[in-house]
Write a structure and sequence with these properties.
Alpha-Beta Plaits; globular; binds iron/sulfur cluster
């Protein structure tokens, strides 16, 4: 099996080897308790009508020296080993059809609560007998619109490049779904009591944080997915394009789109023929999402009530959680 990796990320905490050279700094998320304080503060501000703009997202300026992935669509054979590896790595429900059932290619799919990544098939204009396959997942934007749209910091961008989502904070407004220029975040409708967004994690907690490659990159038998430093991946992509200009279109999708993404692609056919959103501006969509939130009058009419309700619900839950040990103690007397 060919595992494409430009260089080791760092090392697993358990094997005693050295840590990544871009050692993590505190993430921009927070726990529920910190959130309660923030919510209380926001509620107060909003209630007196001074919440004149949505949460600014200047926090997200991308991380230098971060990691990423490069998918070379000319090397993908549509085996779906990446889908299978992702399913297993994330303990997702088994799909209705086995991973070797090619009938799934009859329709275009999007990632959802049961699949953080999917592979779609396209006709190859250069060779009708050799279809093109495109793997879809979160692109882990350098300046993620999902994070900038989220009013309560449920998303964070790690120094390693992954965009993380914290379900403990999410209250289900779904602004992230609207803001994402690549239509990636999916809503888990089966999680009725706990609002939950689902998307590719870049295998951050289980792998990348510990110096391991992502499960999909490790599983790909053709080396279509390369894991490594984003800067190195761009060099690799450029070198491939320059070496075989007849094979590749002269474009690295994600180098600049949406301000740059940590998951990038190279292709043998124009990206628009593979349903890539080629109208995504190169400028990070942060300004747009700020504008989006502040242009929704509903936000200002329900904001204090929304946060108030949210605060009350979470406070109640935290109090209930805190009462549990005492309750148990009482019962055991
Ligand atoms: S692709 Fe969408 S969900 Fe993923 S980081 Fe970018 S904006 Fe967020
Ligand atoms: S990086 Fe991890 S979570 Fe994302 S598609 Fe690959 S295996 Fe799935
Ligand atoms: S494992 Fe590799 S070759 Fe197979 S579908 Fe995924 S990206 Fe393509």
């Amino acid at each position: 099996m060919k595992i494409n990796q430009t260089e080791p990320v760092g090392k697993d905490e358990g094997d005693g080897e050295k840590a990544p050279d871009n050692a993590p700094v505190p993430e921009q998320g927070m726990n529920r308790r910190a959130f309660l304080g923030t919510v209380a503060a926001i509620s107060g501000v909003a209630a007196v009508g001074t919440a004149g703009s949505a949460r600014a997202s200047e926090d997200f300026s991308g991380w230098p020296n971060s990691y990423g992935l490069l998918t070379d669509l000319t090397a993908c054979v549509g085996c779906r080993s990446c889908e299978k590896a992702c399913n297993e790595a994330n303990n997702l429900p088994k799909p209705a059809l086995p991973f070797d059932d090619a009938s799934v290619f009859d329709q275009k799919r999007r990632p959802d609560a049961h699949a953080y990544t999917v592979v779609n098939r396209y006709e190859n204009p250069k060779d009708k007998n050799t279809p093109i396959y495109r793997k879809v997942q979160c692109n882990h934007c350098k300046e993620p619109a999902c994070a900038s749209a989220c009013p309560i910091h449920a998303y964070s961008k790690t120094p390693e490049g992954a965009v993380k989502y914290n379900p403990d904070l999410c209250f289900g407004c779904r602004y992230c779904m609207i803001a994402c220029p690549f239509s990636v975040p999916a809503y888990d409708y089966e999680s009725a009591l706990e609002p939950r967004i689902v998307k590719c994690t870049m295998c951050y907690d289980a792998r990348v944080k510990h110096g391991k490659v992502t499960a999909c990159a490790e599983a790909c038998p053709t080396g279509a997915i390369t894991f490594g430093k984003r800067d190195e991946l761009i060099k690799i992509a450029r070198a491939r394009i320059e070496k075989e200009p007849g094979k590749y279109v002269d474009h690295i999708f994600g180098e600049h789109e949406a301000g740059g993404t940590n998951w990038m692609y190279i292709s043998g056919v124009p990206f628009e023929q593979l349903d890539f959103p080629t109208n995504v501006p190169n400028k990070p969509p942060i300004e747009l999402t700020k504008g989006f939130l502040s242009s929704v009058p509903l936000v200002f009419t329900i904001w204090p009530a929304l946060f108030g309700m949210c605060y009350a619900a979470l406070k109640h839950r935290d109090e209930a959680d805190n009462d549990k040990p005492a309750q148990k103690k009482e019962e055991s007397k």
